Amino acid sequence: MGNKVWNDKKRFIWMLSILLLAAFIVTSGISYQVAHESLSEQIEDNTLPLTSDNIYSEIQQDLLRPIFISSLMAQDTFVRDWTINDEQDPEKLIRYLNEIQQKYNTVTSFFISESSRNYYHSSGVLKKIEDVSSEDAWYFRVRSLPKSEDYEINIDTDTADKNRTVIYVNYKVYDFEGNFIGVTGVGLAVESVKKMIELYQTRYNRKVYFSDRQGNITLRSKGFDGATTLQSTAGLEKLATRILTSPSASFSYRRDNRTIYLNSRLVEEFQWYLMVEQDEVLAEKKLLTTFWLNIGLSLVVTFGILLIANMTLGKYQRKLEMMASTDKLTGAANRQAFEEYFTPALSRSLVESTPMAVLIIDIDHFKQVNDKFGHNIGDLVIQSAANVLKSNLKEADLLCRWGGEEFLVLLPNMNISQAHELADRMRETVAARSIKVNGNDINITISSGVAEYRKTETPEELINRADIALYQAKEQGRNQVVLSY
User: Fold this and answer.
1) Is residue 158 within 8 Å of residue 107, measured between CB atoms?
2) What is the C-alpha to C-alpha distance for residues 434 and 440, in angstroms, rounded to an integer?
3) How many helices (H) and strands (E) does the chain have?
4) Contact indicator for 182, 173 with CB cutoff of 8 Å
5) Read out DSSP for 435-464?
6) Which EC numbers does the record give (predicted)?
7) Where are the alpha helices (DSSP H) in 63-189?
8) Mean pLDDT computed over 165-192
9) What are residue 189's DSSP bridge partners?
């Protein structure tokens, strides 16, 4: 029975483990799947647009400042008066441009007069603008802008330093009657702007770059790995038209077997699109980290539950085994326990060629005790007799309450002669003991039948021979031991 209970317990623990782990894994998997499915919507509709708004707000401070400076220069009374008055004393304008450059920390400041076509720079008069020069085409392009457009932004080499690339803000200048009289403006170093973009990328952990209205990538960081145009960027070629015709939009596309989320926003002042991208891999890593943390936590919780369950089951198992194998009244083994104990004891006896004997013991005239003193006292008498019997046994011996007032004792490694001596000693001990109840002395005796196992017989035949010997002891006057040979 013990092995069966132990096997049942192990089976239950394994089933509980599998069910708990399966429940945790399924729950974590469903949570991961739901989170993964909502990731795209969350990024497209919330996270990325919010990041784009934040970057746009910073652009208002960082990149729109040159437009404001150029606007102030174009509206400056000094510049317009100086130009209208035939550009007398160029050093005054040069000093003015130098002060603008120093005050606002720009890399260049300039003014081109429509009348003289002189290119005034903070360092002096650089040259005359010529309509046949490709380097000067920008001036005539700005000059021909419609009245509704006062400026343009372009990226070009610095006229004063050919090794430097500059972002120019070219602003048209009008006299007091609205006549075009020149172009003024300032420039920012492309490297400085790229550092701003890299700062945005680091701060928001997103890829940031700019595209003009034609889809050309105008500004990007050093680590930018895309193409030079939206139309030639893998995955974006089909979306380029939609991006360039929408003031603000959110998209997702596939590139290198990854999902890329993109938010585009037109910066009106620049007429450039602010492009903010997020790679799904980064968000996916967070989800996977959370998933494996949940699995790890599930394992810890499962282990804790199993530990508690094992302790609880062990406690109840021992209690149930005790209840299932022990006689409640005497604490001796019951018949079921005897059957489980007898089989391995018999096997050892056969393998080791050692003797084994059994005693069947009965309390004499027990019915008279019950009739005279009641069942409660009868139970007390049975308990007392069991205690005496147990006190004469070794650890390897087994005392079993066989039924009513009858006991069976299994004696491994004991032949019939040794068993007879033990049975007689038990009989004398019981007879010498007196039980006092309500001022009455109750003396009892026992009768015993003894049998030694024969190799050719069955367990039932062994017990039957001991039982016959007990019956003979009863027939011969009780309080004695009879052997069965």
Assistant:
1) yes
2) 10
3) 14, 18
4) yes
5) EEETTEEEE--EEEEEEE--TTS-HHHHHH
6) 2.7.7.65
7) 65-75, 77-84, 90-104, 137-143
8) 90
9) 166
Q: Nearest 10 degrees: CA dihedral of 52, 55, 60, 63? A: -120
- For helices 459-475 and 335-352, give the axis angle rounded to 10 degrees: 110
Q: Which of 397, 402, 392, 300 is nearest to 356 (CA)?
A: 397
> Two tokens at 417?
């002669």
349: helix, strand or coil: helix
Per the CB < 8 A criterion, the answer to whether 476 and 482 are in contact is yes
Q: What is the rounded CA–CA span in Å between residue 262 and residue 234?
A: 13
Distance CA 146, CA 157 (A): 25
Q: What are phi and psi of 141, to 5 degrees?
A: -70, -45
Residue 207, beta-bridge partner list: 277
Placement of tokens 């004891």 in the chain = 345
Q: What is the pLDDT of residues 337-370, one digit of tens each?
A: 888 888 888 888 988 999 999 999 999 999 998 8
Mean pLDDT of 310-336: 72
d(CA 437, CA 318): 35
Contact partners, residue 231, CB within 8 Å, separation at least 6: 215, 237, 240
How far is the C-alpha of 410 from the C-alpha of 406, rounded, in Å? 14
**Pair 386, 332: CB distance under 8 Å:** yes
d(C-alpha 97, C-alpha 76), whole Å: 12
**Residue 372, token pair as written in the block:** 């005279």
Q: In 392-454, where does DSSP find H-type helix?
A: 416-432
Q: Which residues, 6+ apart, have CB-to-CB distance to 294 below 8 Å? A: 24, 28, 31
Residue 295 reports pLDDT greater than 70: yes
Quote the CA–CA distance of 159 and 201 in Å, as a whole number: 31
